[in-house]
């Protein structure tokens, strides 16, 4: 499977791994485990992710905050959801990008130190009842209209920029811009 894995900012000593799942049958169970802290990962609605870079930018910002002891949320995993969102409201960010019981296509973001990847991957693979997909198929699960609405992207902007670039720009500058 072509999981997307690499090192984040070297200051953090964190690595990330992205796993895409389709037709997930147990999202409510996964959500319960996440809330209880039994699953060490971030799980996102695949419909709101345009490109792997979008998840990586949010993960890197979360890793930097964790390394600097400046988390805005309680964990590095909820921090990723916070940075994916344009909202500065934590609860809204978590409900907007975190999975709900009706979600069937999910993106799992693992944050790990060198040598921890396989154990964390096994933990996730044992918890998700769904079809594992190559990360290259992520755009097939994107709800373009929902992404445009969520990030307030209009057609004029898309004439000069791709949807993924527009989204990544917003995530990158979240601290500096106010949503329209």
Fold and architecture overview:
The chain has 180 residues and is of the alpha+beta class. Helices cover 42% and strands 14% of the residues. The chain is built from 8 helices and 5 strands. Strands 1, 2, 3, 4 and 5 form a 5-stranded antiparallel β-sheet that branches. Helix 2 crosses helix 3, helix 2 runs parallel beside helix 8 (163-172) and helix 6 (144-151) runs parallel beside helix 8 (163-172). The longest helix is centred in the N-terminal third of the chain and has 16 residues, at 52-67. The termini are far apart. The model has no long low-confidence stretch (mean pLDDT 92).
Topology, please?
Elements: E1 4-7, E2 15-22, H1 27-35, E3 42-45, H2 52-67, H3 76-84, H4 90-97, E4 106-112, H5 117-125, E5 131-133, H6 144-151, H7 155-160, H8 163-172
Helix pairs in contact: 2-3, 2-8, 3-4, 6-8
């Amino acid at each position: 499977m072509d999981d997307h894995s690499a090192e984040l900012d070297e200051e953090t000593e964190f690595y990330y791994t992205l796993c895409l799942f389709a037709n997930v049958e147990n999202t409510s169970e996964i959500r319960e485990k996440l809330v209880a802290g039994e699953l060490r990962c971030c799980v996102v609605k695949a419909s709101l992710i345009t490109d792997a870079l979008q998840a990586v930018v949010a993960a890197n910002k979360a890793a930097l905050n964790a390394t600097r002891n400046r988390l805005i949320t309680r964990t590095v995993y909820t921090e990723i959801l916070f940075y994916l969102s344009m909202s500065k409201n934590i609860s809204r960010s978590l409900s907007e990008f975190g999975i709900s019981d009706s979600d069937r296509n999910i993106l799992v973001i693992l944050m790990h130190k060198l040598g921890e990847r396989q154990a964390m991957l096994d933990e996730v693979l044992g918890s998700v009842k769904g079809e594992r997909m190559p990360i290259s198929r992520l755009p097939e699960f994107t709800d373009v209209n929902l992404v445009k609405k969520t990030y307030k992207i209009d057609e004029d902007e898309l004439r000069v920029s791709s949807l993924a670039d527009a989204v990544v720009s917003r995530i990158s500058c979240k601290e500096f811009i106010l949503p329209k």
